[in-house]
Amino acid sequence: MDMSRWLSDMMQPGSKKSMPILSFPSVQLLGVTVEELCHSSQLQAQGMKMIADRVPSAAAVSMMDLSVEAQAFGCTVKMSRHEVPTVVGALVTDEDEAEALAVPPVGAGRTGLYIEAMKEASSLITDRPVFAGVIGPFSLAGRMMDVQEALVNCIAEPDMVHVIMEKTTSFLIDYITAYKTQTGASGVVMAEPLTGLLSPALAEEFSEPYVKRIVDAVQDDNFIVVYHNCGDNVLLMAQSIFRVGAKAYHFGNAIDMEKMMAIAPGDVPVMGNVDPAGQFMNGTPDSIREETMRIMEACCRYPNFVISSGCDIPPESKWENIDAYFAAVSEFYGK
After folding, report:
1. Is it true that the peptide bond before 229 is cis, omega within 30 degrees of 0?
2. What is the pLDDT of residue 269?
3. From CA 279, how far away is CA 262, in angstroms rounded?
4. Within 13 Å and on the Cβ side, how many CA atoms surround 237?
5. What is the 8-class DSSP label of residue 279?
6. In the chain, at which residue ranges do the beta strands (DSSP E only) sit?
7. DSSP string of 43-54?
8. Residue whose C-alpha is closest to residue 160's, from 208, 69, 67, 92
9. Is 250 strand, coil or helix?
10. Residue 335's pLDDT is what?
11. pLDDT score of 136
12. 195-251, pLDDT tens digit by residue?
């Protein structure tokens, strides 16, 4: 797919398609559990196809399962019938363990299954770009150290953190390259939310250079990186984020999207940020319509703004709310 043309279309003023991060609610359409979905490439591909057939999205986005890469390194993952998988415990607790940490081959754990799922999905969905979901390098490191410890270690044990960052970055370059060369995907949505909890100075040190290295290694005219961050401090570190050079950016509902658009570069699509839990999962058709219209009225004066969910839409989100969201987008552009 011509991603340069797609990016250009996403930056034009006027009517355009939405790009929510919508995949996990496919469990309702398939009649399966989240755990079953996370262990079947066929179900993942079928679910993405069912969603693409149902909604007029600008792209199909695979699950943002941020446990996959950590599990490949050896982390313990808690599975559930109805909730997104989570990493439990710490794999690395000191610098010696960081030095000894082996970089897994692509295919370790469930990574091979997710690559196969993307290959199948790309063959089924041909009318829009198909994006794989991957974790960012600092967020992956945080899952191996334990999230709270990772934030402390940036100050108390910075050398240890950099050792782990080198290894997560190396693995992610290989993993994303496999998506690029083996699946037919048009790019990846890279979730780096843990960086959004750092100070701007620490984000510049522990995330920016590593994310940029990944972007430079994998991105080209036909395969793009969409950078996602839903942390509270994103507005404070926006310039660092934009320096990584991704072809598009996606932000969570913790921030004021209108303020982000005022400082974002105008030559890349910038997406967000209807609350996934508060609206898609726990809202009503009326409330999600109102919130979608509010954000669009504030931000659509910027030609490069694209309405989206603030993050990955939870598995048990009501489809009546998801349908109401897309109806609100159509209503806004139909005015």
Report:
1. no
2. 98
3. 24
4. 27
5. I
6. 60-61, 76-78, 86-88, 130-135, 187-191, 224-229, 248-251, 270-274, 305-309
7. HHHHHHHHHHHH
8. 92
9. strand
10. 79
11. 98
12. 999 999 999 999 999 999 999 999 999 999 999 999 889 999 999 999 999 999 999
Residues 273, 34, 87, 108: what is their CA dihedral angle, to the nearest 10 degrees? -110
Token digits for 284? 């009503």
Cα of first residue to Cα of last residue in the chain, in angstroms, is 31
**CB burial string 265-298: b at 16+ within 10 A, e below:** eeebbbbbbbbbeebbbbbebeebbebbbebbee
Which tokens in the block code for residue 134? 């991957």
What stretches in the chain show pLDDT beneath 70? none
pLDDT at 285: 98
Q: How far apart are CA 141 and CA 246, in angstroms?
A: 20
- Spatial CA neighbour of 226 closest among 197, 269, 263: 269
If one counts every other C-beta atom within 10 angstroms of the C-beta of residue 218, the result is 22
What DSSP designation does 111 have?
H
* HSE of 71, CA atoms in CB hemisphere, 13 A: 22
State the Cα–Cα distance between residues 143 and 9, nearest whole angstrom.
36
